[in-house]
Write a structure and sequence with these properties.
By secondary structure, the protein is α/β, with parallel strands linked by helices. It has two domains: 3-100, Ribosomal protein L30/S12 (60s Ribosomal Protein L30, Chain: A); 105-262, 3-Layer(aba) Sandwich (Alpha/beta knot). The chain is built from eleven helices and eleven strands. The protein has helices spanning 13-20, 24-30, 38-46, 63-69, 80-86, 105-112, 128-140, 158-164, 179-188, 226-231, 249-262, and strands spanning 3-7, 32-36, 51-57, 74-78, 95-100, 119-123, 145-149, 173-176, 192-196, 213-218, 234-236. Residues 34-105 form the RNA 2-O ribose methyltransferase substrate binding domain. This is RNA methyltransferase, TrmH family. Keywords: Methyltransferase, Transferase.
Length: 263
Amino acid sequence: MGRIIRVTSKNNRVYTDILRLHQKKYRDREGRYLVEGENLVREAIRQHADILDLVMREGSGFLSEALEEFPAGSVYVFDGKLFDAAAPTESSQGILAVIRKPDQAGESLSALDRPGGNLVVLDRLQDPGNIGTIIRTAEGAGYEAVLVIRGTADVFSPKVVRAAAGAIFRMPILMTDTWKEMAELVRGCGKKLAVTSIRDHLQYYEADLSRDIALVIGNEGNGCDPELIEAADLRVSIPMGGQLESLNASVAAGILMYEAVRK
């Protein structure tokens, strides 16, 4: 069983580490990120995520269970003010964890090679809610992995982690520097690049998106890189009613990813 360490000082190492991890540059540099909330922390434990520190608010009812489920390490109990200052959200459930980012390059490359498997690619998306929802939906639709092109917002930010609802612990995630690097990688694994484009008239349900597809979801305001659109193997559109030109990125991604399930 783990041991309890009570923390009341702002100079405590765990407290200062958590504050730093609110910022992307420290998450990138230190290879760690924050998970907040009872359900997400439970899921992190269940999925054997590499939990470095487990932190609770004084009086949390989850303490005894945490000690049993986290036997290898210490549980840090912060007083109320200290925990509230450390938590990423104002309405915290009183529990958070510091987790080491997985080295998923090998697992992701293995996922890319699976015959018939589909992938989703994030091209410079900026909204954390969209990113997390797409990761969650990708798991639900049976996609194998998530590829992230540089310029996309941090997939390990607290908002993305919350929106992904546990899928962040299970979906292989692979970072690429450019869309050209991504394209070379996925085509080398026998996948076709599919993008959405309002200029093309092949409706998504007329295309075969059922297998061996790398589906690219573009930036919320500007869409996919124009050169990437031109280089794609499939360019599809989603029919729009009314005066709309496009859908929210995560909604569009969900429609397209579940086309693979439908077929």
